[in-house]
Amino acid sequence: DIQMTQSPSSLSASVGDRVTITCRATQNIGSSLNWYQHKPGRAPKVLIYVTSSLQRGVPSRFSGSGSGTDFTLTISSLQPEDFATYYCQQSYKTPWTFGPGTKVESK
Amino acid sequence: QVQLVQSGAEVQTPGASVRVSCSASGYTFTSYYIHWVRQAPGRGLEWMGLINPSSGDTFYAQKFQGRVTMTRDTSTSTAYLDLRGLRFEDTAVYFCTRVPEGLYYFDDWGQGTQVIVSS
Predict the structure, then answer these.
(1) Is residue A44 a contact partner of residue B95, using CB atoms and an 8 Å limit?
(2) Are the C-beta atoms of A35 and A55 separated by less than 8 Å?
(3) Alpha-helix residue ranges (DSSP H) falling in A41-80
(4) CB distance from B107 to chain A under 8 Å?
(5) Residue B106: which of A50, A21, A28, A61 has the closest Cα?
(6) Are the beta carbons of B47 and A95 separated by less than 8 Å?
(7) Residue B50, CA distances (Å) to A75, B38, B55, B107 in order
(8) A87: which chain B residues are within 8 Å (Cβ-Cβ)?
(9) Measured between CB atoms, does B5 come within 8 Å of chain A?
């Protein structure tokens, strides 16, 4: 199975900050990497698919980059509604696997 | 609009079985694979498997093979997750989610079903 790691596991940030989360796969997954936002008591929400494509309705402050094994999610200017846990997920090969998550908390 | 509506919370004893349903509306049920994902308390998201609603073909994560069955009823546009031999560690919120045909990400999700395994 392809294992996904994320760093950091958590971070504290303020509104307006630029936030960067990294995700690494244990093998080359091309561009088959998606990012989700998850808030407690809610269903996860896709933000970015195929590494850098912004899901419709998602604010442009979210962006993704990378290829192969190393990927990045960037929030250019953190907003109050962005405090949540973020997961990367590979869809290169079944079983599809998620990273362990990065919790973004208010400083 | 697209909706995936799941069945309500369940409390089961160890060794029992549970069935979670996922009723789809607002789109052609057979055009989107349905996947199941769970989240145990304090843990991350865990992919369990998928079903192709058109053919009924399934693929399960190895961890769940032998204990899980995913089925669908195309007449009611409903997908089902059956999990047998429940263990305390199966306590989790279970989500159904759909993947657009030809694409490879989860775009819509059910609201989640809490399953508690308790003696």
Answers:
(1) yes
(2) no
(3) none
(4) yes
(5) A50
(6) yes
(7) 31, 13, 12, 14
(8) 44-45
(9) no
Judge whether B47 is closer than 8 Å to chain A, CB to CB.
yes
pLDDT tens-digit map of B15-47: 999 999 999 999 999 999 999 999 999 999 999
Please, what are the averages of pLDDT over each run of 10 residues along chain B (119 residues)?
Answer: 97 98 96 96 94 96 96 98 98 95 90 97
Contact A94 B111 (CB under 8 A): no
| Token pair for B110 | 């059910």
pLDDT by residue for chain A (107 residues), tens only, comes to 999 999 999 999 999 999 999 999 999 999 999 999 999 999 999 999 999 999 999 999 999 999 999 999 999 999 999 999 999 999 999 999 999 999 999 99
- Cα(B81)–Cα(B68) distance, integer angstroms: 7
Q: How far apart are the first and last CA of chain B?
A: 40
Distance CA B37, CA B93 (A): 8
Q: How far apart are CA A11 and CA A20, in angstroms?
A: 10
